[in-house]
Each structure stands twice: as structure tokens, then as C-alpha cells.
Amino acid sequence: MSEMRAASRAPARGSLHTVDVPGLRHDHDKGTLVNNTYRHLFGPVPSRRLGRSLGVDLTPFKTCSFDCIFCQLGRTTDKTILQREYVPVDEVIAELDAWLAAGNTADYLTLSGSGEPTLNSEFGRVIRHLHERTTIPLALLTNGTLLGDPHVQMAAAQANVVKVSLSAWDDTSLQHVNRPHRSIKFDTLYDGIRKFRKIFTGELWIEVFLVWGTNSSVSDVLKIADRVQALNPTRVQLNTAVRPSCEEYAYAVPLHRMDDVAKLFNPAAEIMAEYSSNTSASIQATEADLVGILERRPCSLDQLCRVTGLHPNEASKYLGKLTHTGQVQEHHKSGEVYFSGVHSLRTPST
Ligand code: SF4
Asked: Under CATH, to which class is 13-284 assigned?
């Protein structure tokens, strides 16, 4: 084989040809990977915290160091603290490059998805790569269990926003609310978050998830608020189980009660309202797109309309057909109706 022929068959340095990404094809005219199907990306989905957020999923369903009673994904099937490359990060990066090359945009790129993203040993490489490729801010949603590890701290500190869940104040409450991996103790977990706070110059958001009758009394919330305040967060966000949770007994805290306990935090906690979203970018929604979104995250009609740009009449027609054909299910929760794909992977609250 001549050198010229050999060179023409070899993948260019950094070329997307070097990675075989199932579900993507190479468009020879555009010189990019194109397809609507991504294995590791989802959305952009409506997020109450982050507007239109493109989710980047770095773990298989459902790999987490916690098994929270309020998790919208369902129960944890692989409860672990073992860090490894659970999904090939080269594939994730190739998909992100293709998504960006197609001119897509979002308010945030968010490491979240089917479990705890910091369990993927290469998550820092994804953050680094994205900062080189785009100015879209990057958020990491984590339960904080690995933040005691200096390598995890350094990798996480590259994000613009790190949102850590903290809904307990000692080992007993941690067991009741988060059902952690057996090796995780509250003091060690909390100390890890505190150490991370010292080196992190971005925005630290703390999300407190309250479950009615489990960690929602004034004395419970005061104990959580004490620990949250010592972390000097940029924002504190109060959440509750308004969407279907993995345990039926994980009841939502009534809104008037949330209003009362929000004042116990310093800074005062924001109650997670409906997501907000700018409408600068429109998304061409198809039935397949809608099913893809709803398989990742249950949405109300209003949320689905905001993220897709569809008129409610149009969206309800799609939903009517999709529920009729069994591709989408309807759930009733706290007076709201949510829709999810029948193979739903539901986005977690971290
Ligand atoms: S809510 Fe987040 S931290 Fe808790 S089990 Fe689900 S994915 Fe894990």
C-alpha cells in the first residue's frame, strides 16, 4: 500500500472518524457526525434550575452511591462508590462535538443523567473538552459523595456551577433519606463537600430535598440549614417530591410549609418553581423527539411546550396520540399531570 493510500485511509488526528459512535452517521458533505439519536445526551430538557439544559449522561442506568427515597429514576440497581469509565468518554465527547457542530444551543450543558456523574472516572475530561469547544456554561449535579477525593475535587472545580444535594444532618437521617452505599458516613461526606468548597471558585448551589414526615419538621430543617450555611453556598434551593418518586411514601411537602421553612436558611432558600427558559432557540419536535425527552424525564404539558416551542394544542395532539399508542404514560402527582416515555429513565434530582 502506498503512503498516500495509507494516509487517505487513516483517521485524521482528532477526527470524529476515530470514534465509532452507534446511532450517528458521518455526513461526508458537512464533514460531521449527524443524527438526532444520541446515546449519552438528552434534551435539552426543561430544568427548574438551569433553563434549557442539555443532559450529559456518564453512567449506565442506574448507577449511584445513593438510593434516595425520592429519586425520580427509581431504585438504584448498582449502588457503588467505585470510580471507573462506566461509559466510554470518547463516545460522549464525539456526540457533544456533533451536537455543537450542528449549531445546537442550550442554557447549560449539565453532567447528570442516569446516576451519579462523578462515578465516571473521566468526567473531568468531558468538562475540560467542553470548555475548549464552547462558551455554554457547564453544570455538574452531584450527591457529593466523592468530593472528599482530591482528584474528584480538582475535576469538579472546572465546572461553572456545581450543585450538591444535602438533605440530611447525620448518619440516621442520611440512612432514612438517601440510603447510601454502606461505606458512606455523614461526617466524611460533609467534610468532603466542605473541602471542595474551599478550592472551588465557581457557583456552589446546595439543593435540599424535603420529604414530608421524614426530614421536613422545623427542627429537622434547622439542623440541615446549619450544615448548609457552613458551606457558604451561592444559592440554596428547596425541592420536594412533586414528581413521581421511587418510594410511594416519599410525599411532597405542601407549598405553604415550604414557604415557612425556606426562611430558616441563610441565604434564604429558593423554592423550586416551574423551570424558566429563554425561547431564543427553537427545537424541531417530532414524535420521536418527544418520546426521547419523556423517556429521560417526566414533563408536564407546560414544560414540554416550553422546551420544544410547541403550542399547547399541538403538543397535546402529539401526547394524545402517543398515550393512545402506548408510547407515553400519564401520571398524576400533587394535582399535576406528568407524561413519561414507557421506557422512562426519568432524570434524577441531583
Ligand atoms: S436522586 Fe440522585 S443521588 Fe439520589 S439516588 Fe437518584 S441519582 Fe442518586
From this structure: alpha beta
